[in-house]
Design goal:
The chain is mostly helical. The chain has 5 helices and no strands. It has one domain. The longest helix is centred in the N-terminal third of the chain and has 31 residues.
Length: 133
């Protein structure tokens, strides 16, 4: 049951990050430039994932293994969406999608995926530390 809830929460993450991305493209890129907007947007999206992770962990009792599994589930869903939707629906070539992973060019998308993977586990550890457990 926890994984069904995790998928529902992931849809919320998707909507939040898509909204953030639209705002980044329409507002921020014109103001600071495309690459800085990408970098700021990636950090902001990572914060969104951490916020959702925190509320998810607070709302449901998770073991460490479940928290890691939820992070892996969210990452798998996100990567599937990223590559399938943007390639087959939006028509972005594979090379364009993979360019977002080139940290040597200042692209930081890998940061978002790492945050997505470890976010539930990291926030579980944070919540448990605050509870004293």
């Amino acid at each position: 049951m926890i994984y069904v809830r995790a998928v529902v929460v992931w849809v919320g993450i998707l909507v939040a990050i898509a909204t953030l991305g639209a705002a980044r493209d329409m507002l921020l890129a014109a103001w600071v430039g495309k690459l800085p907007a990408h970098q700021i947007g990636t950090v902001a999206a990572s914060v969104v994932v951490l916020a959702f992770s925190y509320f998810f962990v607070r709302a449901f009792t998770l073991s460490r293994g479940e928290a890691l599994a939820v992070g892996a589930l969210w990452l798998g869903l996100a990567l599937a969406f990223e590559f399938l939707f943007f390639h087959f629906v939006s028509g972005i070539p594979w090379s364009g999608l993979l360019a977002d992973y080139n940290v040597f060019e200042g692209r930081l998308l890998i940061l978002l995926w790492l945050t997505t993977l470890v976010g539930p586990y990291a926030t579980l550890r944070f919540v448990n530390l605050r509870r004293g457990s």
